[in-house]
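Last lecture ended with a question: if I hand you only a sequence, what can you say about the shape of the protein? Today we answer it with a concrete record. The protein is ESIP1 protein. Below, first the input exactly as provided, then the predicted structure, then a couple of comments.
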Amino acid sequence: PYVLVTPNETRRKQLQQSKLSFAKKELDDLKRWKEEHRPGPIALVPQRLGGKESEAQVRQNQQMMLMQSKYQKKHKREEYVKAKKAAEEAEILKKKAIQREKAERLEVKKRQEEVQRREMFLEDQNYKTNELLNRLDVGLPKSDSCQIANPGPESTAWKRSHAYKQALREDENRRLEEMKQEQQRKAELMEFKQKQEEEARTKAHQDEQRRVNNAFLDRLQNKMQPNSIYQPGYTG
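The predicted structure:
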């Protein structure tokens, strides 16, 4: 259930009129406030606006700055590419040097093993030769046990075997000395070569560092003197 209340038309009209009058009063107050706070006339001293340069000169300066900016960007890009390429080349050279050193060490190791095999072979050969000669010497009379007035074929064979053993020893010693000298010469040559490579790498590193420093100084000078390449008369 609900109750229907009939609206009071008189009360409604009074409320509407009061709202309208209040809004009109606010509008009038706002208009009066604007009139009271209206800014007065502006009095400025006449003066010449703009810079000392002409528009054509300003346009020319802007064009020069734009060209300079493009040149600097291009120069930075080229320097970056050069530095990257130099770093890659240095890395490649470093890897090649490492591989070369490994190959040289492997070659030295192979030569040392070959020398050791030769020495072992010579020792074994001399041992077998001495063993054979000792077998041949069995049964021959000793020089201090008895005096031989007339040397026979046995003493001649003993002398020849003794001379043969002495020649073998001398030949073995000579070959060992030659191998040692050859190994020493190879070691000295390899040391000299490594020293030359180290000096070359040091010189290349110093040259690269000097080039990078010069490039940095050039860029710094260009930043400190931005208009140095656009002096009057420059046609580059």
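Comments.
1. Residues 139-152, 228-236 have pLDDT under 50 and may be disordered.
2. The chain is about 80% helix and 0% strand.
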